[in-house]
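As the next step, I selected for study a record pairing a protein sequence with its backbone structure tokens, which the following lines show:
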Amino acid sequence: MSGIRLLPSASRPAQAWKNGGGVTREVARQDDGAGDILWRVSIADVREAGPFSHFPGIDRVLAVLEGRLLLDFGGGTVPVLVTPEIAAHAFPGDVPVSGTPDGGPVTDLNLMVRRGRMRGTQRQLPPGTVTLPLTPAATHLLVATGTAQVMHGDDAHTLGPLDALLVDAGTAASITVRATAVCWWIEIVPLAERP
């Protein structure tokens, strides 16, 4: 299927955090010519409380696939609770933040985009059947939490838990998703260069 690729969860190596509090598995990314991240999607297992890594010039959008995560931005603000039932939480990647699992380990879905170059969103799709239009300039990813069938024209893909489907920019028409559990739909759009 041109422009659409299955990214199986089994093919993602685990990268241990420096603080030992969890591991990250990269789903997909795009870098610029200098090796800096334009965008990155990853899934992390958070086992212990600790500070998030500092990413200058990056905006983040974090969703929780399993568990409950408290995000503490300090400064006397009330921590933000993120759960699978709550919309993804956006925040700058270069502000201090700590994450604390609330009641057990957490699995999260993390989108990072280069500020001023890309804009990224993630939204939850309920179980069932939905047809999703494809924005021509955007890169899209679908991340399944259960099993899902995805159709694009005459082609079909079957996704298992935590598998992803990458839809390259320029892919035409729409996709139809039939899912037994929640899926997450990610859209990454390049921003116009300023003169």
User: Anything to note?
Assistant: The longest strand covers residues 22-31. The chain has a mean pLDDT of 92. The chain has two domains: 13-116, 119-190. The radius of gyration is 17 Å.
